[in-house]
Amino acid sequence: MKFTIPLGKHNLYRMMRNQWKVARKRPVLKTNAERVLQANNLELVDANEFVASPKKTFDFSSIVGLAPHPVPKDENHPLYKEQPCFFYRDHSVLLEGLPQALALTNTVQLEADILPPRIQKLVDQVQLPNQDELVQRCIKSTCLHRTGM
C-alpha cells in the first residue's frame, strides 16, 4: 500500500473520543483546598446549590397560533358517518388475499395476458417502425446501469 497524505493523516475525532474515555475514569484528587480556606476564615459554599437549579416549566397554552384540539365527532358534526371508513394502503395486511383486495378497491381482475378489446385495438393501431430495437436497447441499458449488482 502506498503511503499517501490522506493515509498519513490522523483521525482526530477517534483520538478525542479515546481521550474522553480515559479522562472520565480519573478519580477526583484531594487538594485540601477546604482545609486551607477554613484556616484563612473564608466562607465555603456548596457548589451543588448553583449547579442543580430547579427546572423551569413552560406554559404551552401561552403560545399564539397553536392549532386547537380536534373536536370529537358526534351526530352534530358535519363529517359524522354511522359506518366508519377504512383505508387500504401499502402497509395494510390482507388476510383473504386477492379477493379481499378486489373487494376493497372495487376493481375486477383481468384474465391473464388478455386486455379488453377496446385497449387491444389501440395497441394494434400504434406500431413504431423500430419498436423491437427500442425495447432491446432499453432492456440492455437497464441491465448495464443496474446498481443492485
Structural notes for this entry:
39% of the residues lie in helices and 0% in strands. With 149 residues, the protein is an all-alpha fold. It is flat, with a radius of gyration of 37 Å. The model has no long low-confidence stretch (mean pLDDT 81). One of its GO terms (cellular component) is mitochondrion.
Characterize the biggest β-sheet. none
Structural class: mainly alpha
What's the quaternary structure here?
A: single chain
**Helix content range of the residues, please?**
25-40%
Number of helices: 7
Shape annotation: flat
How would you spell out the order of helices and strands? HHHHHHH
- Strand residues, percent: under 5%
Detail the poorly predicted runs. none
Give average pLDDT, whole number.
81
Number of strands: 0
Q: What is the gist of this entry?
A:
With 149 residues, the chain is mostly helical. The protein has 7 helices and no strands. Among the domains are: 1-47, no CATH class; 110-148, no CATH class.
